Structures are given as C-alpha cells and as structure tokens.
Amino acid sequence: MKKHILFSIFFISLLFSSCKKWVDDLNTDPNNPQDANAATMLTGLQLADAVIHEGELARRAGMWCGYFTGQLFQYNSYQLYNVIANDYNETWSLLFAAAVKNSRLLRQKALEVNNRRLVGVAQVLEAHSLGTAADLWGDIPYNQVFNENYPNPAFEPQLKIYDSIQVLLDSAINNLNSASFINFANQDIFYQGDANKWKQAAYTLKARYYLHTKKYDLALAAAQNGISSAANNMMMTHIDNANGSNLYSQFLVDERAGFMNAAGTYAVSIINPGGAKYRGNTKTNETARFRYLYRSSSDINYNNVGGAFYKTTAYPLITYAENLLILAEADTRMNGFNAGLTRLNTYRSWLATGGHLSTQYAIAGTYRYDPYVAADFATGGMENSNNPFVTYPLTANGNGTATGPGAGNITPVAVTSTGYATPVYRSLGMKLIGNPNGDSTTTNPNWAAEGTATTVNTTFSGITFNNTIRYVQFDINTSTGSAFAMQNVSLPITITGAGSLYAAVAYSTDNWTTFTYMTQNGNQGELMSSAAPLSASLSAPVPLIANKFSVRVIIWRKFASVGNFASANIGSTVFTLSPVPPVASVTADQALLREILEERYVSFFGQIEGFNDMRRTQGETEVRVPIVPNTGNQLPQRFLYPQSEIDRNTSTPNPIPSLFTRTPVNQ
Amino acid sequence: MGALWGIGFQKDDKGGYILDANGFPISEVEQKVLGDPNPDWRSGLGLNVEYKNFKLYALFEHSQGGDIVDATEAVLLDYGVSKATGNEITAPANLKTASGATIMAGTKFRGNIGNFGGGDVALDQSWYTGLGGFFGNVLEPFVTSATWTRLREVTISYRIGKKYLPKFTGLSSVNFELSGRNLWLNSKLKPIDPDSNVEGSGSGRGIVYFNNPGTRSYLFTIKLNF
C-alpha cells in the first residue's frame, strides 16, 4: 500500500511537472505575437497611416469635394449627405487605435532603447494621422487618449490640436537630427530609414497644417525645408496581390464595383479636354493627366497599367508636388503676384517634365505646361477672362454644351427634370396660352407639354384668331428656384399666312407682372412676312438676375378678327446664361491665386487635401474652386463623431455638431 | 430583453416631422431606441373535442405587443423590387421629389405619393434609394407591431375499434390522424412570420432581414395498436 502511495505521489508529481511543461506556452500563439520591439512595430504603424489616407476617408472626402460620385447603396447616401454617426466608427477607430495608440507605444519603446530617430518617425506619422483627424472632425481627444486615468478623454479645441501637432513635428525634427539611432531601414516601408527624407516630410507636414490654420507666413517658412524632389515623396507602394494592391483598386475592382465613379463631377469637367469647363489653354494641355487619372469621362483610372489608381500604382501621402504648391499659394498670399507666379511656374516646369505621371501616361505631346506670364492673369488674359457669359444653345432638354470663351465659368445648377438627368439649364417647354375662348388649337400637337422635351426650333400652324392675341411662352428656370443671370437672347421668328399678321417678342422675370418688349418696334409689333423674318434679341447692359426668365412670342392679326395663319417658326434660339454671381474678371492677384488653388485641386485628386482646401477657401468667392453641393445648398463641413465614441466617451459633445457646422478653423 | 436601436427622423415638439425644403423628413444622426422587441404577453388556447370515434385538437397562440423592424422591405424598396416601387402613377399635381426635382402634373412616374405633413410629395427612386430605403439608414418607418395570432396546430383523428377489425390481425385499434402545423397566421407584417429570428437561435429578436419563413407542415398518420 505504502509503495502504491509513493508510486502514486511520484506519478502525480511527474504528471504535474510534465503538464506544466506542456501547457506552459499553450496560451502563446507563435503566429500572433503579443508584443514587438519598436522597429518591428513601425511597419504596422505605416500601414495604418496609409490606410487612413488612402482608404475610406479619402473616398468620402472625395465625394464631398467634386472628385467622385457615390452611386450605389451606402455610397449613394454619402453622396447625398445622408450620413449618421454610425458611419464613422471604423475610420475613427483606425485613426485612434491603429495609428495614435501604436505610435505612442512605439515611441515609448523606441525611447527605452534610445532610438531617437525612430521616435521622430513615429511622431511624424502620429502628426500626420492626428492632423487628418483634426482636419475632418475639428475638436478631437488628444492628450488624454490611451491614458487609463482618463476613461472619458476630453475633446480639445481644433486650433489647440494644430498647435500641439506643430510642437510634435518640431520634436520629431529634433529627434530625426539625433545621432543616436538603431537602424530600422528594413522595417521602414516609406523611406527605408532615411532620416533626411523623414525630416523633409515633417517640414512639408508642418507647412500643410500652417496652411490649414491660414498662417501662410509660417507655411511658407516651413515649406522651404520641405520635400525637395519627387524621389523624396512619402508614397505607399503597392503590389499585385489581393491585400497589397492600391486601395482604390481594391475597393472599386475587388470589393465594391460600381459603388463610386466620377460621373458628372466638377473635377472631371475641368480636367477632361472634352469637358464643359476644360481648364486647358494654349499653354496648358491636360490630356495626359486626364488619361492618367480617368479611365473615361465618368470613371477613375483603376484598370489600366500605370493609371493613377491601378492596383500596382503607389499612392501619394506627402509629396514634392504638395510642397511646391504650398510654396506657390503661401508666397502669393504673403508676397504678392510676382513671387507667386515664379512659384507656380516652378511647379508647372516640374509638370512639364511629366510630373507625377507614370511612364505609360507621360507621352510627349499629350501634356504641356508652359510658363505663364503676368499678362495671362491681367484682365482679358487667358487665365482671367472678362467674358464671363457663355453662349448656351437651348435645345430639347437644355442638354446643350457650353461653348465659347469663358465656357468654364458656368456652374450649372440643378435641373428641372422627372428623371435623373445631368444638371443643366432647361426649358420648361412651350405651350399655347392666352386662349380664353377655347379655340380649337389649344391642344395643337406641335407644342409639347410643359416639362417634356421640346426644341426651340418649333413650327406651329393653324391658330385661329378669335379676336384675341395669341402667344407662345417658354420659361427657363432652375429646379431649385435659385437665381441665374441672363445676358443675351436672340430669337428669330418667321410667320407666313394671309392677312396682316403681326408679331412681337417680350420677356418677363416676374411672371408677367411687368414685361419688356424685345423687338425693335416695341409694343407696336412688326408686320410679318417670310421675306422679312423678325429677329428679337435682348442684350442687357447689366445681366438680368432672375429666378425665372419667361419669353413670349405674341402674334395677332391686325385687321381681321377671325382667321388663321399658315405657319410660324421660331428659329435657333440662343440664350446666354450664367450662374449667379456671374464670374466677372478679377484682379491679377486673384486670378493667379485662383489658378494656384485650381492646380492644387487637380494635383490632389483622390486625396483628402482636396476636401480640406474646399472648406478652407470657401469664403474666398473670387478665387476658390467653385464646387457646388451635391444636394441642397450647403457644402459639408466635417465628418460626424462616431456612434462608438458617443456611446462610450461621455466627453463627446452632445449633441454632436452637424455635418454643416464649420470646424473652428474655418469659421 | 433588449431594445431596437437605430436611426429615426427629426421631429418637432408635437411629434411632426421636421421637413426639408422639398417637404421630406430629415434624418437624425445619432441612434436611439426605436422600439421594444419583447411582447407584452403571450398565450395559448388549446381545444380538445371528442365525438364518437372522432377527435379534434386545435391550438391557437397569440403574442401581444412588441415591435419588429422590417428591414427586408427597406432593402427591397432600395433595390426597387418591392411591390410598392412597382407602382406607376400619374401625378395629379406638380410634385416635388426627394432630390428636389418637380414632377409635372399629368406626368407618369414610378413610385408613390406620400405626405409627411407638408403636402403631397412624390416618392420616387430618389426617395427610395435615399432616406426612404435601407441604405438611407433610417429604419424608424419600418418598425411595426409584432402582434400575431396563429393557429399553431390542428389535428383530426378517427379511431377504428377492435370489433371492426379482423381478428387474425391481432389489432386492438387503428387510428387515422391528419394534422397540420402553422396553418393560419394573422399579423401586420406580411408575409413574414414575426416570430422568426434573423439570428436563428441567437438574441437578435425583432428584426426581419430576409428571414426564412416559418414552416408549414401537414402530417397524415396511421397508428396500429396491437
């Protein structure tokens, strides 16, 4: 028995010791390490930084600044500003958990081993991500995040965040200058451990956030030390692999085909050489850039090798181009025209070498960026048109194309339509009115019903005159009822028939409470014959501003009360329209700044910076890129605080600011 | 337990919708409680009738109260494949759409006419692919009463006694039984069974999102008793 007990004890102890050995590392998954050293953490942090700037946030910002159009399901809702707090849970969590938390942990670990330069790198990345968070959300938690003493981290004012980011970047530059570091070249997928490139990126970032806070003098100073060549760009490189490819390509090809494209966007209308508002001129040819960015006039280029969003195309995070454009804008604002023009031409000369185009798209003859001279921005110069009105042929649905000098100045407002048409001005059609006697021709089939397609080239015949003046009327308005400007109308009319037919043309902007004759003989009208067509035209000395412009062609028979005429024809009618306020010529300084802002808008295509610029410059009506709201009459100003933060952090503002509340820096 | 949690429309103090310029309601952005998926009470009523060799058994069940959100309908509206989006109607007057366009009187359009308190408006594609459908996020209008009454089971049986059965079989009796389960359901939410659960046996009650309908079964049984 004793022996048995002893044996048992021995066996049990053997069992225990063995068990311990077996289960010791049972909870340790060698494939999912629980900890890593600072350098190893870097790659993950960089990946988070890239996903933040290249992924969902960039797509959503792009839909709100005229780069993209959301088409399906959730993206249709984003497009129409139908967003809820829940829509922002993932992106917020990516920013704070994947970027900021990891950065702070990495910094701590790097400090422990005195890897100063790596601390600097993490600071640059943290500044990049937090800066974007401040850009998009305004006030955000900053100092108290990831600190167990603060379960409900306070939201700090946006301007204070920008200040903190500048301090963070100064400290980063300091650390990057340090001689003490442990090589992290293998983990650094952006710059392979090149401290000098990191430093340049830090300066460009400083300039970017000074620009956002409208401290243009400081932006100018910081950008002097910024990224000095395209080779020093901070780029997220991509490979041909399901998870390693360009995020736009992943989204639009692999995951959510058809959710988003570029149909009808403001950006494509100015970049596409066939677009209504093409920005090219004799010194500028955007063909190559258009082909690089777009696969068609309505979609972005994710499917052609070398295209801007192709699966293997690297995505720009912080670039030489941005640095040059910060210099151009800040110098113009601080030191005036000549300084700014030189800067802009520096950028254009870089574009003229092919710029950011890939080799597939840098085809000689398809791009041209000759230097501008002062005269180009003077009144009447190619970048400062003094002819703000465009010739606009009104056709069936008003689907004409704007042509002629200054066509780029038209910003169409929404359309009156029962379908899903593109926004253009539209005629409401023509119909016979003023027929109180119930004449037989009331339903003349030659006249289309209101709201349906009609041409202005209209023939009508067989109207009986029962002692009454007859007229046709057509109205031009915008579906939103917003005002537009009208400068020129020309309207040729021919009428043939027996007897003395008279015609006159009049217009009204107040539903015929008051009206003005457009024909030369005023309200006398003119005797009509096929040999002498009547031509009515209006050339307002100052543009007529109206919500509705209504024209009547009035016909009557002078000497007989009953009778009819053979036919009447209104020839090609040309209206010259413009949105309100009409784009008039501006000062040379403004014209230059306008061109620089437009160049920024085009150069940052697909980046969050386009949305940032839109909000920053929205008060500068003469120079801003004239992006119009996708719906309604307000531009979105921010992203919503996420539901996850509302539910868990009692410091979240209550109620959360609306989409249309400007962030403090833009107030 | 639990609550239906989601997005509603903005309302004024009197409970009316706050409308946009086109006469359509406006989405809230923060989630709130939209309903309670739990019934107030449930009951069953069983019925047993025997007459001679016939036997009838019926079981009625009733669930009173509680809310359910019909997300299936919301999705179908968004895709334009719900019956409601198949309507083609002629506008009796000039109607605004959610996108701000005007449908002229006398013009045909696909959709419906709605009124959110600011006069008639046209509920067309722009409404259903926007706030009026699933991807517009607002599920409040799709919350309905989950009250239901059903005939859970009916059984009719007939028994043949020993004296009618040949002796050599050794049978003491034979029973013929016809029964049906889930034969009748009365609920506001048609044609989906509000008692179904999107998460199967999980806790996601009160949500209809392409749930399988409840099964209906018929059984014919012959029982031989020796």
Output the keywords:
heterodimer; A: 667 residues; alpha+beta; six-stranded antiparallel β-sheet; 17 helices; B: 226 residues; mainly beta; five-stranded antiparallel β-sheet; three-stranded mixed β-sheet; 2 helices; 6% helix
Blueprint (SSEs and pairs):
The complex is a heterodimer of chains A (667) and B (226).
Chain A: H1 2-23, H2 38-54, H3 56-63, E1 69-70, H4 73-79, H5 89-112, H6 116-137, E2 140-141, E3 155-156, H7 158-176, H8 195-212, H9 216-223, E4 234-236, H10 247-255, E5 260-261, H11 266-271, E6 284-285, H12 287-293, E7 294-296, E8 299-300, E9 315-318, H13 320-335, H14 337-352, E10 368-369, E11 390-393, E12 426-433, E13 458-460, E14 470-477, E15 484-496, E16 501-508, E17 516-517, E18 526-527, E19 534-546, E20 548-557, E21 567-570, E22 574-579, H15 588-603, H16 609-616, H17 643-648
Antiparallel strand pairs in A: 1-5, 2-3, 4-9, 6-10, 7-8, 11-22, 12-14, 13-21, 14-20, 15-19, 15-21, 15-22, 16-17, 16-18, 16-20
Chain B: E1 4-6, E2 32-35, E3 41-51, E4 54-64, E5 67-70, H1 71-79, E6 88-90, E7 95-96, E8 102-103, E9 108-110, E10 112-115, E11 120-123, H2 125-128, E12 143-145, E13 148-160, E14 173-187, E15 207-208, E16 217-225
Parallel strand pairs in B: 5-15
Antiparallel strand pairs in B: 1-2, 3-4, 4-13, 5-12, 6-9, 7-8, 10-11, 13-14, 14-16
